[in-house]
Design brief:
58% helix; two-stranded antiparallel ribbon; 2 strands; mainly alpha; rod-shaped
Length: 106
């Protein structure tokens, strides 16, 4: 079984990150990641060129922007699974009790 995703840790990281919607912005020679004010969020090398390629930048932007909704959906899904598991356990116990009663009758 895999280790559950630590949603609290992800939310903490998100809270520390630059707020707002991130976007890709095409520059003359490269693609940049910018915050809602247009400020670059990419680290750059000696020549001022970004140290990340466009596909990686696109993934980062999409992931950061989707993360709040993904966390909400996963919390809701976990709660639904727990409700279903509780219902299953209750039903299973009730069925076991009924089966025991039926077996005990002559």
């Amino acid at each position: 079984m895999t280790t559950p995703i630590d949603l609290d840790a992800l939310e903490a990281l998100l809270a520390k990150a630059t707020p707002g919607t991130w976007a890709l912005e095409e520059r003359r020679d490269y693609t940049d990641i910018v915050d809602g004010t247009g400020t670059s969020l990419l680290p750059t090398g000696w020549g001022g060129e970004p140290l990340i390629d466009r596909d990686d930048a696109a993934l980062i932007v999409a992931a950061v922007n989707a993360l709040p909704a993904l966390i909400r959906e996963l919390r809701e899904a976990r709660a639904s699974v727990e409700i279903a598991a509780d219902a299953y356990r209750k039903t299973s116990l009730e069925l076991s009790a009924v089966a025991a009663q039926l077996r005990s009758k002559p």
